[in-house]
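Re: the request from the purification team.
They wanted to know what the chain is likely to look like in 3D before they choose a buffer screen. I agreed to run a prediction and write the result into the notebook, where they can find it.
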Amino acid sequence: MYLLIASVLTLWSSHAHAIPIFAENAAQNVNTALTLYPDSEDQNLYYFMPNSSSLQMTNTTPSLPMFGFTYWGLNTGASLENAGAYLSFTAHLVSDEAQKAALNSFISGGKRVAALPIQTSIVNLTSSQKDAIPLKILFNELDFSAHAGMAEDDIGVNAVLTGIGAKVFKAAIDTPDLMKVDYCYQSQGLGPDFNAHVMVDYRRVYDDFQSHFSAGGFFWHAQIDAEIEKLIANHAISIVINGGDAKEEEYVKSISDEIVEKLMQPHLQAVPTSAAGSGWSFASYSLKITNREELTTVHWDMMKRDNVIHEACIPVTLSGLKPYYNDIVKNADATN
């Protein structure tokens, strides 16, 4: 399966502008285990994200999980201030059986798939215990690459734990439900597309603004948006939405930008940007000296699609370690 995915990623990299489409009306859900996002250029290519994880295993005999935990100071009876541990593990994302079945069914229909290209990622650790010790006091150091590669790449974590952290993680190896580890990632793609036919009667728009403000007055962008909404209600502006799932206010803001460019002149005003007055900068607009008779009714098709960030988390399981306990857990004090 992943050999196929790797070859598709090579194909994807040759299309510099091809990226996933994350719009809700574009994504395909294949049962609850698989969500597919179409490619922006290749109609036969879809992206997915593995929905599970597994610890990497060594190539030795017997094969062991790539997980190491070396602690000190826990069995000496001394204060936990003098205790600690080194933690290191390597995991990778995988598809569970339900997702594998859904992928195989999709691929057998002649479609191609690739793992989502990951932009940035983090590892989150949370405790499942009620009123547990805050996680910030479990670690002296936690190292993880924030800029990830492909979804098939290994996830490596190295940490130096405090005495309390060493005690908690030592217990978590025996009882993995005590600690929840999530791999959270961001991937960039295309969001909802604007697709509408717009009509603007610029004479009526001009007359409306002139009737409310003097020619030398200023208009805040929120006022412009509000007036355009009234003009839509009065049919001086019409929007016929042909597709996409953008909201009407998004079209209103785009029409505002068009009207500002045609009829209004931007100015700078010194007004506070917050109640506390932490900064001074604001763009305002005044009507240009425009010959009303030159204004016409304009029609255009509005087509726009913004880049968006897709965020999600996948659980990284640390279960199944107990059978390997003697091989992966070391007491540093016992070797002295």
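For the purification team: The helical segments are 2-13, 97-108, 163-174, 202-212, 221-233, 248-263, 325-328.
Please add any questions underneath this entry.
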